[in-house]
Design brief:
- The chain has helices spanning 2-23, 41-96, 100-109, 117-130, 134-147, 152-165, 169-182, 187-200, 203-215, 221-238, 248-253, 263-275, 279-292, 296-302, 310-324, 328-340, 344-357, 361-373, 379-390, and strands at 27-32, 35-40.
- By secondary structure, the chain is mainly alpha-helical.
- Strands 1-2 form a two-stranded antiparallel sheet.
- A hairpin with a 2-residue loop joins strand 1 and strand 2 (35-40).
Length: 413
Amino acid sequence: MKYVAYLLLTLLAAVVVAGLAHVSNGYALLAYGRTSLEMSLGTLLALVLVTFFGLYLLTTLSVQLWTFPRRLREALARKRELRARRATTQGLIDFAEGRWAMSEKNLMRHATDSEMPLITYIAAARAAQLQGEHERRDSHLRRAFEEIPEAHVAVLLTQAELQIAHKQHEQALATLRRLQEVDPDHAFGLKLLANLYRKLGDWEALRALLPKLHDNPELSRKDVDKFESRAVAALLDRLDAKHTKPSAAELWDGLPRRLKNEPELVRAYARALIRNGEGVKAEELLRDAIKASWDEELMALYGLALGEDPKRQLARVEDWLAERGENAALLLTAGRLCVVAKLWGKARGYFEASIMLSGKPEAYEELGKLLRQLDDPDALRAYSDGLEVSLGRKVKAYKPPKPKPRRTRTSGY
C-alpha cells in the first residue's frame, strides 16, 4: 500500500511537470567532455523523477531481500511462541481441572518455545507428581534448572516441596541442604527445613536451626515459637538421667520467657524433673502453672510431683476439688497423693470416682496398683479394664464393689 501511494505521487508530479512543460518550452543542455545532450525541461524533470523512483525501489528491494532471512526467522519464532502460549494455557487449564496427564502433555509439547519456561516446567513437574511419576517430575525440574540457571532457588524449593509431599524425606533433606549452600537465609527454605526436621523427629537439628529462624525477619514469631516449643518439649521428654546433655534445666533456661507459660513445655519439663527425682522443683513449677492457667494434664502430673509436704499438697488438691467440683484429673491426683499419705480407703474412693467420670487408663492402672498392694482380688479386673481402654475397646461401666461383711485392713482414714 505504501508503494502504491509513492507511485501515485510520482505520477501526479509527472503530470504537474508535463503541464509546466506545455506552458513553457524551455530546454536543458547536459554536456560532459565532447558529449552533449539537449532535451526539453519537462523531459529532464520526468527523467529525474523516474530515476529517483527507480533507485528508491531498487534500494528498498535490496534491503527487503537482505533482511528476508531475519524476518522469516522472526515470523517463525512468533508462530512458535503463539503455539507454545496456546499449549501452555491449555496445559494450565487441564491442571486446574484435574487432568494431570493431559496437562503434562500440553505443557511439555512446546515447552522449549514457551515465554514462561520456568512456570511451564514447574507446572509440568507438579502434574507428573500428581500422577506418581517421580522420575519425570525430577526430569522436568532438571530441564528447568538447565534452561533457566538463574532460577535455581525456585527449582530447588519446588523440588523439596514436592519431595516432602510424597514423603521422600531423605531426598528432600538433601535438596534443602543444597539450597542452604546457595541461599542460607531464604525464609521459605528455612521453614521447609524446620518442618522436615519435625517430620523426621530430628529435634537436635531443629533446635540448632532455631537461631537462624529467630534472626529471619520474614518468618513470623508465632511459627518460630511453635517450632521451638515442639523441639524443646520433645528433647525434654527424651531426657532420662540427670547428666544428659543438654540437661532439663539448660533446655528450660534457654527458652524465651514468653514460652515458659506454654502448657506443653511446662508438662514436658515437669515430666523430666519427676523422672530425675526432682519432685520438689516439679511441684513448685506445676503449682505456679496451674494457678496461672488451669490445665487438666498439668493437674494429673501434680499427683506425681512429690513436694516437701505431700499432705499439704493433698489439702491443696481437695481445696481445688471443692472450688471446681468433681474433675477426673483432680480426683486422680487426689488419689495418688492419698496413696503417698497411706490413706488407702480414701485413695480407692478417689480412683473409682475418677474412673466413673472419664475412664482413663491411668486411673485404672493406679487403682490396680492400689488393690494389688491391698491383696484385693479386684486388682486383676482393674488392670484388665485399663488395658482394654488403652486399646480403644469398650468396657462395662465401672461400679465400686459393695463392702463385704468381713474384717478389712486398718486404713488411714
